[in-house]
């Protein structure tokens, strides 16, 4: 099996970076949930704090990398305007819009995907900043932890929706 340059970037964007983000969500959520004095010793809080800071910043970084590679590397190939008489199969957006049975994949799925995808890194970065700001005090603030878990969940959901729409659009019109 051979991957073209476009295929390799699409795999890096969607499968590698997207999968790392979606899988890391479970670790971040579990870390926030169990970060309480009643569950851990003071030494355990310090150890978990380091892991939580590294993990949340890692997730934020990976989500930004996924959105940036999608927006500035893969997306221009998707949206490229075909020259007159070109085969539309090589121009995914134009291919989808040219067929009334497929145009909804662009008009709804891809347009929604490109906007909702930005929620994931914004919320993941917010969680990372808040974890860093509160540090060990986060163990004493269950409501803040619950709010951060909710932000994490919305980031996960937005990344999941963007992933599903991206995969479905790519299935109908590959980059």
Keywords:
175 residues; mainly alpha; 6 helices
| Largest sheet: number of strands, sense, barrel closure | none
User: Which structural class matches the secondary elements?
Assistant: mainly alpha
* Poorly predicted sequence stretches spanning 5 or more consecutive residues: none
**Head-to-tail CA distance between termini:** 17 Å
Mean pLDDT over the residues? 90
Rg over alpha carbons: 20 Å
Into how many domains do the coordinates divide?
A: 1
Based on DSSP secondary structure assignment, what is the total number of beta strands?
A: 0
Order of helices and strands: HHHHHH
Describe the global form.
elongated
Supply the number of helical segments.
Answer: 6
Can you lay out the helices and strands and say which pair or pack?
Blueprint: H1 5-33, H2 42-79, H3 92-98, H4 103-116, H5 119-134, H6 142-172
Helix pairs in contact: 1-2, 1-6, 2-5, 3-4, 4-6, 5-6
Summarize this entry quickly:
With 175 residues, the chain is mostly helical.
Characterization of this structure:
The protein contains six helices and no strands. The chain is mainly α and 175 residues long. The protein has one domain. It is elongated. The mean pLDDT is 90.
């Amino acid at each position: 099996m051979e991957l073209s340059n476009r295929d390799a970037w699409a795999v890096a964007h969607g499968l590698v970076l997207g999968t790392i983000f979606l899988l890391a969500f479970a670790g971040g959520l579990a870390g926030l949930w169990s970060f309480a004095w009643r569950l851990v010793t003071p030494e355990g809080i310090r150890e978990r704090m380091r892991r939580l800071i590294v993990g949340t910043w890692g997730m934020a970084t990976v989500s930004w990398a996924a959105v940036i590679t999608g927006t500035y590397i893969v997306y221009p190939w998707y949206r490229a305007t075909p020259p007159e008489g070109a085969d539309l199969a090589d121009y995914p957006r134009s291919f989808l819009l040219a067929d009334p049975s497929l145009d909804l994949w662009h008009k709804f799925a891809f347009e929604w995907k490109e906007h909702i995808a930005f929620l994931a890194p914004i919320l993941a970065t917010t969680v990372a900043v808040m974890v860093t700001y509160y540090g060990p005090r986060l163990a004493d603030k269950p409501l803040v932890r619950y709010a951060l878990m909710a932000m994490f969940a919305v980031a996960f959901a937005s990344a999941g929706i963007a992933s599903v729409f991206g995969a479905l659009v790519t299935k109908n019109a590959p980059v």
